[in-house]
TrEMBL record:
Pfam families per UniProt: Response_reg, Trans_reg_C
Source organism (scientific name): Moranella endobia (strain PCIT)
Keyword DNA-binding: yes
Broad class of the protein's primary localization: cytoplasm
UniProt protein name: Transcriptional regulatory protein CpxR
Length: 235
């Protein structure tokens, strides 16, 4: 059974969400502010549902703390509808996805299941990769090891979230080819791309920021407006 930590200061909402999630066979813990997350969080948590606007320690600061502690647990941010700044900031700090309030219950469950499917697929893929001895991918001085979900550059480990690694690995698999944003969203985030959804773009931006300069002097990615992204092949 998957363990979800639900974090929101709206006690009526958390009570209703907890009942909904438990009906969907999730094990749910509840916190009402970021300070409680610090005391309740542990490695058995499979996913966080994290509200942004909370007293004491808000969702943005809580997410920042999680990533600073090197926890790569998937996080879905609960944001105010129309607040683009909160969504962008959450994605920049390493949130996997966001859903605006008020939201449809079925959409929330679908988003949670999509992320958890990717999480379980990753664990299965890692085991299969280790057993099959699948080779790592190398681009310039960067090595992507799917069996360990690790990326290194010239021997130095890169601090990537699971979503960022999966995105980078998928682009490396299509080295020198344009990959459509719609395909990236479906394969990496497990959701269809909507008109104003910038999640993939923000994850690409995060990866760009975390990667050092290439030895060959080439950019890591090219953006093809209206089409998608391309990882530049080595000479």
């Amino acid at each position: 059974m998957n363990n979800i930590l639900l974090v929101d200061d709206d006690r009526k909402l958390t009570s209703l969400l907890r009942e909904l999630l438990e009906m969907e066979n999730f094990n749910v813990q509840v916190a009402h502010d970021g300070e409680q997350v610090l005391s309740k969080f542990n490695s058995s948590i499979n996913l966080l549902l994290l509200d942004i606007i909370m007293p004491r320690k808000n969702g943005i600061d809580t997410l920042k703390w999680l990533r600073q502690q090197h926890y790569q647990t998937p996080v879905i941010m609960l944001t105010a509808r129309g607040n683009e700044l909160d969504r962008v900031l959450g994605l920049e700090l390493g949130a996997d996805d966001y859903i605006p309030k008020p939201f449809n219950d079925r959409e929330l469950i679908a988003r949670i299941r999509a992320i958890l499917r990717r999480l379980h697929w990753k664990d299965t893929e890692q085991q299969q990769t280790r057993e099959a001895g699948t080779p790592s991918l190398k681009v310039d001085l960067m090595i992507l090891n799917p069996g360990r979900q690790e990326a290194t550059f010239d021997g130095t480990l890169l601090e990537l979230t699971g979503t960022e690694f999966n995105l980078l690995y998928l682009l490396a698999q299509h080295l020198g080819q344009v990959v459509q944003r719609e395909y990236l969203s479906q394969e990496v985030l497990g959701k269809r791309l909507t008109q104003f959804d910038r999640s993939i773009d923000m994850h690409i931006s995060n990866v760009r920021r975390k990667l050092p300069e290439r030895q060959d002097g080439q950019p890591w990615f090219k953006t093809l407006r209206g089409r998608g992204y391309l990882m530049v092949s080595t000479a």
